[in-house]
Write a structure and sequence with these properties.
alpha+beta; Uridine Diphospho-n-acetylenolpyruvylglucosamine Reductase, domain 2; Uridine Diphospho-n-acetylenolpyruvylglucosamine Reductase, domain 3; Uridine Diphospho-n-acetylenolpyruvylglucosamine Reductase, domain 1; 5-stranded antiparallel sheet; 4-stranded mixed sheet; 29% helix; binds flavin-adenine dinucleotide
Length: 303
Amino acid sequence: MPVPEHCGELRRLIDSPVMFGEPMHLHTSWRIGGPADIFVEPLGIEDLKAVIAYARNKGLPLTIIGAGTNLLVRDGGISGIVVKIAGGFADIRVDRVTVTAGGGAKLHRLAKAAREAGLGGLEFIAGIPGSVGGAVVMNAGAYGFSVGDRVREVTCLDLEGNLRRLDGGQMEWGYRKSVLQGSDLIVVEAVFGGFPRDRDLIAADMEKILGSRKARQPLEYPSAGSVFKNPPGNYAGRLIQESGCPGMRVGDAQVSTKHANFIVNLGRATASDVLGLIAAVQERVLEKFGVSLEMEVKVLGRD
Ligand SMILES: Cc1cc2nc3c(=O)[nH]c(=O)nc-3n(C[C@H](O)[C@H](O)[C@H](O)COP(=O)(O)OP(=O)(O)OC[C@H]3O[C@@H](n4cnc5c(N)ncnc54)[C@H](O)[C@@H]3O)c2cc1C
C-alpha cells in the first residue's frame, strides 16, 4: 500500500497528528535528517498502542525517537513509521523521595521538578537536553553520575501492546548503555530516586553545572553532544584534540574548536557530511593513537 494511504488509515484510527514525509531535521538537535515516511507523535498510550499494532499488522518498520538529541538521521530519511515520544508522555509527579516522569518529559523539567521539591541526587541532569526515555535508553550521564544510578523502575510498552515494569536492577546499565538498546521496548515512564536536600544547594550545584557546560560546549551551534564514547581510561575529546582534528570540515559539518568531541552544524550540514567527518576523525585518531573511537550517537535511516 502506498505511504499516503497508510497515513490516511492511521488518521482514521487515532487522534494524534500523523505526518507524511515529515522532515527529520525538525526533530533532531543537529538539524539534520531526511523525511520520515510516516511520522506520529502520540497524544497518549492508547494511540501509541494503536500505532504499534498498525505497524505490526502491515509489516511496517517502527522507529522510536525522543527529543532527537543523540541522533544522526541519514539524508534519505526513515522508512516506515517514526514515533516520537514527547508531549503525550510528559507528566512529572514528585513524591517525598521519588520523581515519576513520563518517557517524553524533557530532562530540564525533571531537573527543575526535583530542585523545586528539594530532592537531591538529580543535579547532574541539569543541561542534558534530551527526554526521559532517551536518557534511560542511553544511560545518559555527566559529572560522575548516570541516569542508571538514580532510576528505580522503568515502565515500557512492548510490541504486543503490553506494559512491562523493569526495576533498576534489571536494566543492565553500562557506560551509555542499558538493556533497552536494541530491544523493542518503548519507555513510557520512569521512577527516579533521590534524597531530601536543601533547595538552594541543589540550585547552586545546577547553576554551576550549567555554567560549566556553557563554558566548555559549543551550545551556539546545532549538535548532538559528544559524538564518540570515551575509550577506557581516556577521553575521546582529548584524543581528537591531540590528533589535530578541531576545525576539520566536511561541507558544513565541523569538528568543534571549543569541544573536540562535538561536531557542529555550521548551517547546511548533511548527514553524509557528518558521517564523512566522523570517518576522517576516526582514521586520524587510529593513526596517531591506535585507538578505534566508537560512536555514542545513534545513526538511523537510509542513504
Ligand atoms: C548539547 C548536548 C549536550 C549533551 N550532553 C550530554 C551529556 O552530558 N551526557 C549524555 O549522556 N548525553 C548528552 N547528550 C546526548 C543526549 O542529550 C542524551 O543521550 C539524551 O539522553 C538523549 O535523549 P533523547 O530523548 O534526545 O533521545 P533520542 O536522541 O531521541 O534517542 C536516543 C536513543 O534512544 C531511543 N529512544 C528515545 N526515546 C525512547 C523511548 N521513549 N523509548 C525507547 N527508546 C527511545 C532512540 O531510539 C535512540 O536509540 C547531549 C546532547 C547535546 C545536543
